[in-house]
Amino acid sequence: MRFRADIRNIHTFTKFTASLATLGHIAWVRLDNKDVRFTVIPDTGTQVWSVLTLDTIFDNYTIQSAAPNNTINLEVPLAVLQRALRSAQNANAASIRLTKKDNIPLLSLTITTETLRSSQPTATAPGQDHFAGNGTSSSINGFHPDGPSTDFREESVEFFGARQDRETVVTQDIPIRVLAAAAVEGLHEPRCRAPDVHIVLPNLVQLKTISDRFTKLALATKSGAGRSIGGFATQSATAGPKLELSANMHGCLRLALHTDSMHISSLWTGLENPELDPEQVSDGEDGLANHPSTRMKALGDSTGQHGEEGWATVRVEGRDWGRVLSVGRLGGRVIACFCNQHALILYVFLPAGEEVVVGGGESVLTYYISSYAA
Amino acid sequence: MTVLSFSLTPEATGRLTITALNLSKTAYAAFALDARTFFIDYDFSASSGAKSGDRFTCQLLNKALQSVFKGRSNEGRGRESAVERCDVSIQDQPDKTECRLIVKMLCKHGMTKFYRLTYESVEVMHALFDRTAANQGWRISSRVLREYIEFFGPKTEQLDLLAQEGKAVFTSFTEKVATGTEALKQPLETAISLHTGEFEDFHMQQDMHIVISVKDFKAIVTHAETLRAPISCHFSLPTRPLQFSYHNLGMHSEFTLMTTGDMRAASTTPNPQFVSNRGSSRQPSVIPAQATGRSASEMPPPPRPGISKPLLSQSQRTSAKAQVRQPSMTESDPDPESLFMPDGDEDPRWEPLNYEQDEGEEMLGWDANNEHPSQQTFRDSGTAARPPRRAEPSQEGLEPTQRLSQMHGMFD
């Protein structure tokens, strides 16, 4: 079993890992010839199933496995991976490989960085200009100032060799578990009925700020009602405040909080409801005509102020929703699919890299959020 | 470190020294604050009846002092309670019933805060570190190290220092070995490989592992960085003490730490090789690779600035090197008094520790006289004359537990 790759987009990888880490401690990572899949299935709360094309984060990707389809399944602790990646923020280069040390499987991250120049002894300075204009080299830094010029070539080879060694190498060993194919056989992406409403979400930063504010207000009013503050720390995700999220097929999104003492809501209008691709819908054109979203289109209006007709609504747990929205740092386009009173599915499409491979598929994170009863 | 010790010396050579020793007595920290540079005003007159002569020494609880000063640095920035000046005085007059260390903080708007701390007047012990015996070491900008200590995982426990092929390798690791799902809870193991050219000075035996605590190292580097001072590290061999030191702005800081580590690589090498950039500081980018492999007897390290003590003579130094080779010879010649049968070289590591024989050669010496705490040196006087006595450093009494590196020896 072999896996090795250069990391080409360290910032994307770090942010991606950070967003996943908010939802769970451990990710199931599936590597194969085509793509990399990260899946987080926490005990409670939102599941994430993500597919990254290889060139989103990797370069010079090598994989070799005895399992069918050249697949490697791993369990990776996300916080540790995130920490390891963070030390590569200013790296010149970083690569990752699967290895073993004392029989413990590891993902070893090797990071090469330039060090601060400040530590250099300044004594090299006098030699700096000695060979400038010699034409034979692009030397920038001082080497042996007294070196006879006949030795120059030899020395410069040594010099540049030494200069490369000068880079600092940081190795971060991430403990992991290798999963047998049988262990992951039973894991399937959740299935859901066709959504009633699909809509492009507004800027997630904005949405997150407002959502977090609502959640805070809900918590504050609850504690005002006489519950102990200490109790909240131990509350499970199911016990937290519920936010009501609704959308219609006329570009409206509404975030609302209802407690005993208040009703607040925010309304976005003029959002986009993307057209469904008939090829993606079962039964093609007929299926599209009978699609729930087509029926929802006939209801409601673009002001979102006239009654509850045409709205699909779900209730999400405030803090869990906040964690989901942390994916906003990746800056992708987000489509939310509402199954009324049932579930919310978010598709986060990562911005494509500089080279778009035609037909190479897209990197997409899929969040499955189930709705709570009112 | 629960107890802080204070010593005050007269104004001419005046300094306030604050020291602390941890409970297991494996780490010792000393901060000497210079009377003229560090303090606005320093006034000390020895009480006539004091038995300790012209010094004042006392001991107080670290927690008590910390609660007075902790977090004050943030108050300096235009806050209501900003401290404008801090006066510390000691009340030890015979006519007063209680001894107190009094901290007076003069704040804005004429507010004054008093803290009266109880101290215990005791003689202070100082750990002594023989720098002439610690002939290996390095010096590096604290900024460079500060940048890298961030990479060590928060839960790792130990730090391994190693010199290898022109590189200095710092590895943080944890000895706990977990299996199954627990394995995923293991902290990150981080190795940082720095070129010796990053160091202002570097001299360390190739392939020798010296192990200290990551937490100590992080704390030291973080503090050194706040003083913007380069850090010096001095050591000799694993299981011998190591010292970090740096000074700036009238504060001299020294940390003496006990080390563990793998002696085998160091002791079985018949001709120890050194990774060094000494004597080549003018061409740091070229020479280190060539200097690797030269033994120190061919290229004696130049006297380092800042060491006021006399260095060992050339012949002494050579013999100090020679003793590195000794263990392989003595290990086959075990203690004749031993009840255990000699059983190859596996045996010595199972020997009970022989405390008596080590007497008088511990590097951590204690000195209650403390006439000149910063100048006194505990000298391994026997180094040149009786090299065999230092030949079994891996069996010294200060080692708390068996080293992991020796574990595999059990069944092989």
TrEMBL record, chain A:
GO cellular component annotations of the record: checkpoint clamp complex; nucleolus; site of double-strand break
Pfam families named in the record: Hus1 (PF04005)
Protein keywords: Nucleus
Database matches in SUPFAM superfamilies: DNA clamp
Region (Disordered) residue spans: 117-152, 275-308
Gene3D superfamilies: 3.70.10.10
Locations listed in the record: Nucleus
Regions of compositional bias (Acidic residues) in chain numbering: 275-286
One BP term from GO: mitotic DNA replication checkpoint signaling
Family per similarity comment: Belongs to the HUS1 family.
Protein name, per record: Checkpoint protein
Organism: Friedmanniomyces simplex
Automatic annotation (TrEMBL), chain B:
GO biological process: cellular response to ionizing radiation; DNA repair; DNA replication checkpoint signaling; mitotic intra-S DNA damage checkpoint signaling
Pfam families the UniProt entry points to: Rad9
Coiled coil: none
GO cellular component: checkpoint clamp complex
InterPro entries with a match to the protein in the record: Rad9, Rad9/Ddc1
Ranges of Polar residues composition bias in the record: 266-284, 311-331, 371-380
Keywords assigned by UniProt, alphabetized: DNA damage
Region: Disordered, residue numbers: 263-412
Family: Belongs to the rad9 family.
Record function comment: Acts in DNA repair and mutagenesis. Involved in promoting resistance to ionizing radiation and UV light, as well as regulating cell cycle progression after irradiation.
PANTHER family reported for this sequence: CELL CYCLE CHECKPOINT CONTROL PROTEIN (PTHR15237:SF0), DNA REPAIR PROTEIN RAD9 (PTHR15237)
Name of the protein: DNA repair protein rad9
Source organism (scientific name): Friedmanniomyces simplex
